[in-house]
Structures are given as structure tokens and as C-alpha cells.
Amino acid sequence: xxxxxxxxxxxxxxxxxxxxxxxxxxxxxxxxxxxxxxxxxxxxxxxxxxxxxxxxxxxxxxxxxxxxxxxxxxxxxxxxxxxxxxxxxxxxxxxxxxxxxxxxxxxx
Length: 108
Prior knowledge:
Blueprint: H1 12-23, H2 27-50, E1 53-59, E2 65-71, E3 77-78, H3 84-88, H4 95-105
């Protein structure tokens, strides 16, 4: 994104700057370019606000795989990538809206 990423910044102007950079990328390409990096950034924001820690959870399917999640002190699980693909595919992505959505959602 050609922008200094700082998980300690919590102001709306910073979120707007990130959103502007994301919106310059074609919605079709955003998922491929930004899904993982934005998920990690959002996860770090959530980790700090929920006093959680990263953990890897094994999932089973055709082939088992590992998925990073956040766990807080009460064993609540948080998935920073929850519906991020849907938000990235919108014509206009808004990071502040997504963070608000994730904070209201609570644990999975």
C-alpha cells in the first residue's frame, strides 16, 4: 500500500488513509493482494483491544489445514478474516466500518 503500517494508531484519519490506498486497487485484485496482510493488521488491532493472543487451530476437511485465530483469557475465539473478502469486494472498502463490524461481532 506504500503506507507505513502502525497497529498503535487508532484515529479515523489513519483508517481513511488506508481505505483510500485499498480503494485505488481494483476490487477484483484486492482479495489476492490484501486479504492476508489486512487480516493480520486487523488481527493485531483486535489482539490489542481484546487482550488476546494468536493461536493456530487445526481444521479438518479433504486435507487438514491450520488457521490462525485469536484467543482471549476467557477462551473466546476471534477470526480477523471473518467476511473480509465480502468487504474487500465492495466497490468502496472502509477499514473503520470493518473494524466496527468486527468489534460488534464479538467472538465466534
